[in-house]
Amino acid sequence: MTIDQKSTLVTEIDIEPEIVDAKSLADKFDFYCYFCDKKVKTDSTHNKICETLVKSNNFYCPFCIRNKFYTKKRWDILQLTFRGIIGYLYWKSYRAKIKKLYLCEIKDIVEAHAEMGLFNPAFNYDPDTYIWFIDFSAIGAAKRQVDVEEINKTIVNILTCFNLAESTTGTQSHKIFDKYKDAVDLFYSQRQRPDGKTLLVPTLSGCGGTLDTSFDYDKCRNFLPKNLNVR
Ligand SMILES: [Zn+2]
């Protein structure tokens, strides 16, 4: 290759930088998804796409739009999360004087619980929020529906990923499972959400063992991946 050819190549890939004007910066804004409550950053271009698809005054995040949760379909979706447990592991088994877990172990557990749940096609998962979306249109007695027990079994399998007897000070798994099961039964039979709330977030409060009663279990309810920090 001659020097001339080289300089031609350089010229060809010389790209003009994109000029970002003040207007398009001002177009960026945050919103909370109407269905899953995820905080999302958007701009007018992406917002326009959402508006066109959704045709509603409510904002929906890309995950919920992709899964058509802006349609009637969402009435069959129970949202639940294991944040109450993930947050507990972080605060009480990692951020404790005597650590029971390393941070990477908690991350592995979170990964494992996602993998386990996704074996069941009625379960959908958003890793940004740790929220599970269970499609109850797949559950029932019709030919192409499966028994509600398949939901409960998957929840039990997910709970085993947390290995609570070891990773906490003796939580009784069946007690936390009962909190999920009661909400699953209610949603299955009446399409009613727990306490009228969109998201089911049970905590380990009252789940036995030698759990610290002075601990603020509620702070685990809002635990997000961004909170999983090294300390
Ligand atoms: Zn959403």
- The first-to-last residue Cα distance is 54 Å
Beta-strand residue percentage: 5-15%
Chemical compounds bound to the protein: zinc ion
What general outline do the C-alpha atoms trace?
globular
Task: Extract low-pLDDT stretches.
Answer: none
Description:
This protein has nine helices and six strands, in the order H-H-E-E-H-H-E-H-H-E-E-H-H-H-E. The protein has 231 residues and is α+β, with helices and mostly antiparallel strands. Strands 4-5-3-6 form a four-stranded mixed β-sheet. It has a two-stranded antiparallel ribbon with strand order 1-2. Helix 6 (103-118) runs antiparallel to helix 7 and helix 7 (149-161) runs antiparallel to helix 9 (173-190). The mean pLDDT is 88. The structure holds zinc ion. Zinc ion binds at residues 33, 35-36, 38, 60-61, 63-64. Residues 33, 35-36, 38, 60-61, 63-64 line the site of zinc ion.
Secondary-structure map with pairings?
Elements: H1 3-12, H2 22-26, E1 29-32, E2 39-42, H3 44-54, H4 62-66, E3 77-81, H5 83-94, H6 103-118, E4 123-126, E5 131-135, H7 149-161, H8 164-167, H9 173-190, E6 199-200
Parallel strand pairs: 3-6
Antiparallel strand pairs: 1-2, 3-5, 4-5
Helix pairs in contact: 6-7, 7-9
The structure holds zinc ion.
